[in-house]
Amino acid sequence: MRRRRFKHVCLAALLTLAGLGGAGTVPAVASGGGAPAGSSPSAADAAPASTALLDAMRREFGLTEEQAVARLDAERDATALEPRARRTAGTAYAGSWFDAVGGRLTVAVTSRSSQATRAALRAEGAGVRVVEHSARVLDAAKSRIDRLPAPSAVGGWHVDPAANTVVVTVVRDKTSDNDVQRFLAQARAAGPVTVETVAAAPRTFAAGTVGGDPYYTGNVRCSIGFSVHGGFVTAGHCGQAGAGVRGWDGSYIGNFQGSSFPDNDYAWVNVGSGWWTVPVVLGWGTVSDQLVRGSAEAPVGASVCRSGSTTHWHCGTVLAKNETVNYSQGAVHQMTKTSVCAEGGDSGGSFISGDQAQGVTSGGWGNCSGGGETWFQPVNEILNRYGLTLHTS
User: 133, 158, 237, 391: which one is catalytic?
Assistant: First the structure.
C-alpha cells in the first residue's frame, strides 16, 4: 500500500507543478475554433505504443498484440483524415466514424453528393455511405431539442452519424412517464429522432473526501485532467471560480481560475507553492504512465482510455460527440459519450486516445463492476475558452 501511494504522490505532484512552465506563467492564447497549435498527432507517429498499453487494449478489446498495433495505426490515420474528409464532402457531409471492423474512417454523405466527391473520399482512404440527412440538418434538429425543457428521466441526446438520426436516451423504466412522452413528441417534431433506453440517468462523478487521492476542494474529491502551462484542467462541477484546491497531502496547490457548470463542465486551476506541471497521465500500474503529445480529436468508434483517482485506468470506445447530457443540476452541451466506466471521485480525470488528450471526465451512469457509460468535456474547447496551452512532451 505504501509503495502504491508513493508512486501516486510523485506522479500527482508531476501533474500539478509550475516548474517547467514556471509558476505564474501567463498562458498563451490557443487558436480559435479547433485544436490549438501543436496538437497534431504527427509526433505520435514516431512513438511506438508501449507494451503496457498494448496489453490493456488486448484485455479491453480482446485483440492480439498485432491487432492492437494495427488498430492504433488505423485510428491515427482516421484522426488525421477526418477534417480533410469533412472539407472534401462539403455541404453533403453527414458525419463520420471509425469502423473498427474495416479499420478505416467511414464518411456519410447525402444523395446530393456527386460521384466525383465520393470517389475523392475513397481515394483519400475513407469508406463512403450514402444517407438521407446531412450533418447540418441533424445538428439543427439537435439544436432545437436543446431548447426544450427535459425531464430528469431523459438522459441526453446526440447526433448519431452511423444511424443518421438524433438519438434520445430515456431511463428504461420511465419511458411511459407523461413528461417523457411529451418531451419525445416535441423532439420528434424537431427532426429525425430515434429513442434508446438506458439503465440509469447520468450523474457527475465527484465524491466526498477520501484520503490518498489527487486533489480536493472543500469536501469534494476530484481528479486532475491535463496539465496546461500554469496549471491543469478539470471538471467544472468540482469547484467554483476562486475555490482553493489542496493536493493529496492537504497542501495548497492553487485556486479555480475559471469554472462553468452546468451548460458546460470545465474548469482550470492554477498551480504554485512547489507544485509544477508535466505532460503525464497516470497509468496506475495498469499501463505505464502516458506522455501527452497533443490533442488531436479521435473520431467516433476510436478507442479511448480514462485515468481517474477512484477506478484508475479503464478503456473503451468513443460512442458519440456533441451530446447534450441532462444532469439533475442542468443540461451540459457538446459532450463526448464513451463506453468507458467511471465512479465517484473520477470526475475531472483524463480521457486520452493513444498519446492525444481528448477531454476531462464529467459523469455517466453505472460503475466499473457492472459497466456503464461516461461522458467527457472535450479538452480543446477548454483550452480555447480560457486561452490555455496544453503541456505536451
Answer: 237
The active-site residue out of 223, 260, 309, 347 is: 347
Domains of the chain, each with CATH number or no CATH: 1-62+201-393 (2.40.10.10)
**Residue 229 falls in the annotated catalytic set:** no
Complete DSSP assignment for 46-101: TSPPPHHHHHHHHHHH---HHHHHHHHHHHHHHHHHHHHHHHHHGGGEEEEEEETT
| Sign of torsion over alpha carbons 166, 351, 214, 60 | positive
Q: Which residues of the chain have a pLDDT value below 50?
A: 1-46, 208-212
Burial of 83 by CB count in 10 Å (0-12 exposed, 13-18 middle, 19+ buried)? middle
Distances (CA, A) of 109 to 75, 106, 251, 332, 340: 21, 10, 54, 28, 29
pLDDT digits (tens, 9 = 90+) for 325-379: 999 999 999 999 999 999 999 999 999 999 999 999 999 999 999 999 999 999 9
| 111 is known as an active-site residue | no
Query: Rounded CA gap, 362 and 372, in Å?
Result: 14
The set of cell numbers assigned to 267 is 474548469
- 347 part of the active site: yes
With 0-12 CB in 10 A as exposed, 13-18 as middle and 19+ as buried, what is 140? Answer: middle
Q: Which of 160, 265, 289, 355 is flagged as catalytic?
A: 265
Residue 204 is predicted with a pLDDT of: 81
